[in-house]
Recover the amino acids of this structure.
């Protein structure tokens, strides 16, 4: 046999037939309360979430029913390789696949070539390096420090 039960508007407990109180507000809203205690607390405007024994508090504080499937699973970030500005992805994979000795030899050769190029360019710059002449008034104005140490002076004046 099925018994018709109502829910308490305050505590959210089930109210069986022959129990509880019915309150009808001025706006014709019907409220069922399981006990006079729930009725009194409702009329004092005490929020059910603040009381530990109500279902609203239990729901708010995640007590009682815990569904395993509802919990969020955290995903591990997958490693992903992208091409760099100077190299394509295929070149990167080839370089990783090389044996470390070969890679070190290639890098050493590349460093040597860079060093030679740097020496060559510095030698050619040394012969042509002539500073352009500038007017004397501009140099003095640029190097002159204002009296009083300037804006950022933090000592005694």
């Amino acid at each position: 046999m099925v018994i018709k039960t109502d829910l308490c508007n305050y505590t959210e407990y089930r109210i069986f037939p022959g129990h509880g109180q019915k309150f009808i507000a001025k706006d014709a809203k019907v409220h069922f309360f399981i006990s006079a205690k729930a009725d009194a607390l409702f009329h004092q405007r005490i929020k059910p979430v603040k009381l530990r024994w109500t279902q609203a508090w239990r729901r708010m504080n995640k007590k009682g029913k815990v569904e395993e499937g509802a919990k969020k699973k955290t995903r591990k970030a997958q490693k992903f390789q992208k091409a760099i500005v100077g190299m394509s992805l295929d070149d990167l994979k080839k370089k990783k696949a090389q044996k470390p000795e070969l890679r070190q030899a290639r890098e050493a050769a590349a460093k040597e070539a860079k060093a030679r190029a740097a020496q060559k360019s510095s030698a050619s710059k040394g012969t042509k390096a002539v500073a352009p002449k500038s007017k004397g008034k501009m140099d003095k104005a640029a190097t002159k420090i204002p009296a009083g140490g300037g804006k950022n002076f933090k000592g005694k004046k």
Observations:
- Helices lie at 36-43, 55-60, 89-97, 100-128, 136-143.
